[in-house]
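Narrative summary of target 7.
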Amino acid sequence: MPGENLSRDEARERAALLSVDGYEVSLDVRSAVGDDTGDGPRTFRSVTTIRFRCAEPGATSFADLIAPSVTAVSLNGKDLDPSEVFDGSRIALEDLAAENELVVDARCAYSRTGEGLHRFVDPEDGEVYLYTQYEPADSRRVFANFEQPDLKAPFRFEVRAPEGWTVWSNGVGEESEGVWRFAETKPISTYITCVVAGPYHYVTDSYEREFKDGTRLEIPLGALCRKGLAPHFDADDVFLVTKQGLDFFHDHFDYPYPFGKYDQAFVPEYNLGAMENPGLVTFREEFIFRGKVTQASYENRANVILHEMAHMWFGDLVTMEWWDDLWLKESFADFMGAFALVGATRFEDGWITFANRRKAWAYRADQLPSTHPITADIRDLQDAKLNFDGITYAKGASVLKQLVAYVGQDAFLEGARRYFKRHAYGNTRLGDLLSVLAETSGRDMGTWARAWLQTAGVNSLTPQVLLDAEGRVDELAVVQEAAESHPELRPHRVAVGLYRRTPAGALERYARAEVDVEGPRTVVAELAGAQAPDLVLVNDDDLTYCKIRFDANSLETLKAGLGDLTDPLARALCWSALWNMTRDALLPARDFVDLVLRFAGRESGIGVLQMLHAWANSALVNYLAPEYRETGGRLLAEGALRELRAAGPGSEHQLAWARFFASVAALPEDLQLLQGLLAGTEQIEGLVVDQELRWAFLEPLAAHGGADEGKLAAELARDDTASGKRHQVRCLAARPSAAVKAQAWAQVVESDALSNALVEATIAGFDRSSQRELLAPYAEKYFAVIERVWSERSIQIAMHVVQGLFPSLQQSPATLDAADAWLAAHEDAAPALRRLVLEGRDDLARALRGQACDAEATGAAA
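Modeled conformation, tokenized:
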């Protein structure tokens, strides 16, 4: 990684000097097939022509390229010596003219880490598949360029491919004699150019739209995946959501989709959820479901489709100038994805999922020592890579939801429309968006931005209720608090809901008021005189971004009857608040587990239920006092099995409980049931144990010594696919053996032979909570190797290793001390590396506080 890390200052200097007129990129990927006989990496030829202008003739600058070798470099017709101008990541450009032409002929390397041009060999049939992934700065691994978002240009791609392949890019392509030539793009940034090539299965459709002025728009639609996944590919549903999204955004944005066609490629070993390349969006292929999944999975896929589609306007048409303003695309896409999901598709409860899942990600990220303002200080590309986080996505989207409540939906959308028209194909900063919102809303956007976009941390809102002699509300106030490290108190537009039990026992809202919370204490005058509530829910309807707290009476009401809340969004908000209290060591973890055991079975929302399963697992692994962990695990397994047997046969709730049962199964009788379900000697009415569920059952069996290498090999033979291989690798690394752990560690840390997907699978299997003692020796080894790993491996793989292998299961002060010692001794380490270690250390400290809270509750009860 050294020498590859472009700084913000360098980018600003280059943008002030250069402007780019266009690229012509010619790739020859015929080397992707056939035997690889070379000693070095497998490579392909890349020839790039860049036409650009220089504001200061005679100045020097550089182009970006990461490649094993450069064959030739020509600047303005003059041949340059590659050994003199290319250092492995940059091409020096001296004595520039007012108008320039740079031609670079290079040998670039295929990727096995998901960065650049990734090459995947399908174990099922031996077919080779290629795709590119660049964000934030990996197009330079495929062609020479100026790798920063504000040097936009039109692109023309040409790809020579093996016989029988199809090639896709951002523009429409035509093939002649094995060469695919693509229409020139609109001006776009380097990181959203894209090439996908191989024998993909391809399905087509079209979208048509007539606008009020009588003009018509027709968009060719395509969807593609590996041939092996074709039997599982529900392209019709992908197209349905795509068309619904295009209608929604055309209705609200008043700016026709600007990039011609709209292909969506589901590709193997993808590092991200998806990427918004205009005209050719790429997704991880796990969005094609090989077995039965719940509606939550379909909702998630639809949300991602709409998120990427929103980027066509927020990010692709109008792009942030530098990664500081990454939120200008990601926060908006995250918000618009949920907004469109609810407004245009069958997933009308999308805001419940947003409140329960996306915000949980944001709350966690915003309490880490690495939290940052939504408009972040991004010094370089390594900073940028790590800032694709819960702050930029989910907190930013939550703040935009608050902004819509603040300025009004009509003013917000009119601001977006003016923003697109004013800055189409250009680059923007924070002030450009705030100015149009100020125009349309008449609000002071500067004050709002300073409070919400330029400060870090999450506030907590707690109700205070005083009753009069007649048992009515005398005064209800909202108390706002902030963490000591981030003391900013923000303006919040919130709804406060009052709930009481009905004669039938339900908890229902009987009063509600909206109020602007300002400062440390705000009185909600509208609720004075109301009947005494059993539950006060601050931030009812989820209008703002905050941690909800409860007064003592409300907390007791929830402990006694959380499942009696009839409104699903209110229920989801209460679950989220209780989980935050557990993570903050304000609620003993066993109390949260007890709530899950008593009320999760009554949860109608499948997405909320699956989130509760994840939280209960986290409580078991991280926050229960160690002496109670075995009991807690047993209770969760018993409860899961009880709900599994009670669930409707064949229902998605039954499937969710089956997966949760497998994740907590540890006792011999539980493992025996899983063995029986796999063998067919045990059955639960309606539960179909398909291939994906088989692997879910095999993983705990492997971790507890019930599935050896032979059994896993037999399962792979049954499912000899790319997905099956990932499952097998994870199960192999999960086996409870010192030799197995040593082998897995060596494969990930000491070798770069595994692809990115198999690195992830190996780490997931290695780190098993039931094997804490077996993993204990690796805590010291971790701190000894991470700096070397960071310097030697690609940033994506280095992130997998540093995050995934942090000794989070060694929950003791000694591990905290080891992390602190490493940080103290490595003050000059890469800031991005230090950030990851700080985050791991913080999660560990939080776990220890939670365990102390849980142990204290036990002592108090005794």
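The longest strand covers residues 43-54.
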